[in-house]
Amino acid sequence: MEIPVMESSYVPYANFNFENTNLELARSQWPNYDDQHYLRGCKWSPDGTCLLTVVRGAGMHVMELPPDLYTGDTILTSRPVVPLIPAVSVPESGLIYDYCWYPGMNSANPATCCWLASGHEGPIHLWDAFTGDLRCSYRGYNNVDELEAAISVTFSADGQNIFCGYKKNVKIFSTSRPGREYFEYPIQHQASCLTASLAQPGIVAIGTWKNTIELVSQCDGTFRHLCKLSGHKGGITTMAFSLDGCRLYSGARKDNEIICWDLRVPGRPMFCLTRASNTNQKITIDLSRDNKWLVSGGSDGKVQVWDVSQNIAPSVHYELPLHTDCCNGVSLHPFRPIVATASGQHHPLDPLHHTRNVMQYENALVMWWVGYQQEDPDLLTTIIKAASNS
Questions:
Q1: Which of 26, 272, 380, 381 is most buried, by the most CB atoms less than 10 A from its CB?
Q2: In CATH, which of 3.40.50.300, 3.40.50.1820, 2.60.40.2550, 2.130.10.10 is domain 23-389?
Q3: CB 162 within 8 A of CB 116
Q4: Backbone torsions φ then ψ of 48, nearest 5 degrees
Q5: Pairing of strands 285-287, 88-90
Q6: 232-243 tens-digit pLDDT
Q7: Of 233, 194, 198, which Cα lies nearest the Cα of 97?
Q8: Helix (H/G/I), strand (E/B), else coil: 380
Q9: Of 168, 142, 165, which Cα lies nearest the Cα of 154?
Q10: CA distances, 241 to each of 231, 260, 297, 337, 366 (Å)
């Protein structure tokens, strides 16, 4: 299988303006009840044309960006909320552990439109984003030659390799060679989270359930240990490199701190930020392409925004109460002032009624406009006339 080599092209930064009231653009809702169809994060495609989400018990879904949002510096406040309908759905069985887009994804080139997903007791699958078909699989095996499920997956910066985190090692597959051929890098604890640096190809951060992060350099199938970072109270669940490669942001389960690491002086954190994370569920963070805005969801349903363009610990720049349940996923659009959020979490059975039907929880995928807004002149005229007539 051949994956095209990524082409470098300039993509403008999104002009985020969090000061305005956040305008809801589009929404998709899943029922909860006994099935507990809660969402597990969301991720914009690298070209910004579509949004990928995983719903527990209801597969993976690709939502397209509404056509009217591709252009324009402002949006009318009277714009109606558009229902999000999946363009592609994959009824993947079992629990999905992790997923990620191919970094060179471009809708103009269908061969690049794909994503990886790893699930319970299964191989790593590469899915076609146009048809929802399974393109190929990558299989990792343990020391007794049993198929082992990857806990975390990510592509290398150039998309030519796939890094997969397992219980005792990180396996690296060649994207163009599906099957069971791979190199291994041994680790002491389960690799719960992986991310690759775009600025420094070959640099990979390995987060573990044992609260530590290991930075390694990979080249031609060989790994070299660089440093180990310790400071979190729980297992690592989310990480993000700055685009210049100098910083790494990390978050952990049941840990209210997001730590910023200065990789030029990796001995201690540069600063710590506070969010609500009192759950074992993964709550993701994201960083804007200009390295200015860091956003995170929270178990309280709020999205917090920090201006991290300076070298000092910032206070919360904005706090957006967007959901009534845990906001476990947040993703910044690569070139439009749009934020996507995913809400929902596992709720235990009511001990009295032995059911979850007592209360309806929010399990929603939502797109929000965080750019400049404009009042609809026709709407203002209607309001003024109604006021004068009364």
A1: 26
A2: 2.130.10.10
A3: yes
A4: 75, 10
A5: unpaired
A6: 999 999 999 999
A7: 194
A8: helix
A9: 165
A10: 17, 10, 18, 21, 25
